[in-house]
Amino acid sequence: MPLPYYVSPEQMMQDKAEYAKKGIAKGRSIIALEYVDGILLAADNPSSSLHKVSEVYDRIAFAGAGKYSEFEHLRKAGIRHADLTGYMYSREDVSARTLSNAYSQSLGTAFSTDVKPLEVEILVVQVGANGQANEIFRISFDGSIVDEKNLAVIGGRSESVQQYLREHATPQPPNLKDGLRRCLAALEQVASQKIPSENLEVAVLDRNRLGRKFRRLSSADISQLFA
Amino acid sequence: MKNISFLPYHEGSSFFDFLSERHPELKPGLHAITAHRMAPAVDLSQPGTIPVPHGTTVLALKYRDGAIIAGDRRATEGFQIADRRIEKVFRIDEYSAMAIAGAAGPCIEMAKLFQTELEHYEKLEGVQLSCEGKANKLGQMVKANLPMVFQGLVVMPLYVGYDVKRNEGRIFKYDITGGRYEESDHHSIGSGGKDARNTMREHYRSSLPEEDALRVGLLALYNAADEDVGTGGPDLVRGIYPTAKIVSGAGITDVPEDRVRALYETMIAERRRF
User: Fold this and answer.
1) Predicted pLDDT at B27
2) Cβ–Cβ below 8 Å for B120 and A86
3) Domains and CATH numbers, chain A
């Protein structure tokens, strides 16, 4: 048996991180932006059936960037986690914080123990009801978790998109129409090309809805907003 | 990538299967507890030995734009009334509802699990199950409960759904083995089911408007409560009335209590004049 050659832990982690970052940057960006009725999720996604944004539970949504098969796997596991908690205890006991922690632990473990890290970056967002604040958690490939305020961007050239949105931020959260326009402008600016509305995947967590707050906007809804 | 640590893993989109495989202790029924002290086997060849629900009347009937499902509010323990305002009609999802007859605990548990099952599938797959698919899944859950039936814990659902592809309300009834049968007009189950069916047979017409269909349903419950000790009628003193839900192309709606009360007040006033 050949003797395994030595690689320093620093080098190994750095290599893995570089590998994961490269995979995530290859895709397109996804934005989560607080608007007046809740949280708006917008993604540049040419596919109308392979979603990047999805419902998890009553007040919680998920967005994934990077490798589809991997974040889809995480999405399904998250829904299972949420439904199990809600079934075992009560619907109000399902929280974005608990779910984000589980994601963080899973991604962290996979990053340090698996040969290939997961090439994903995910968002777990929760709309606040009864005067509570919204929550936006961004979880990276290595399990690091960031509690974002007002907005978050993952995937693609996320930093440029985020910079654009921060520069154009208003003190008060925008309405749905303005928020969506701003998201589209940010995505177009960074992609330096027009994005047709059928290539936008948009969903909202609207705190004014009864029961499940998640709603996907059809391309007809989006055109109507832009009209 | 098979298993993700810290998150539950399962293949497939069924929450029921996920629970059965990974968390059997959370499944309805008491399989683990009762396995080692089985009740004597029921001899199914003898008439009258198949356990049946012995309280409750719940019913469903179609109307012009969909289907109505309604139920009484009484829960009994032997000859005692256990609860006067129990809910037997459950919203399952945007387009369907179920009503239950049988042992209260497992019944409510099954309704909750079925709600979670349909929502879980919808979220994982991104589309809702078809009306038929939902009805079949409920049949499988009733079948899985069969061991509990021999312990005397029957769960008997009645399911109504609005089929958005066919644009009509549909009614499904079940037997204890999970057999699923579609009803064309109306059906009722529970100890007062026969009395309710008799009333509906006399008064039901196809394509009734919503108000008339609701009146027939409530009348059938009234008559069932009149004949059957396990079924509660309108309780005028405490202000407890049967509950009803309507499924139509516009989704599911609760019939407000005021509307049920008004219909019963008219019905009772007419009877006083006899």
Assistant:
1) 85
2) no
3) 27-226 (3.60.20.10)
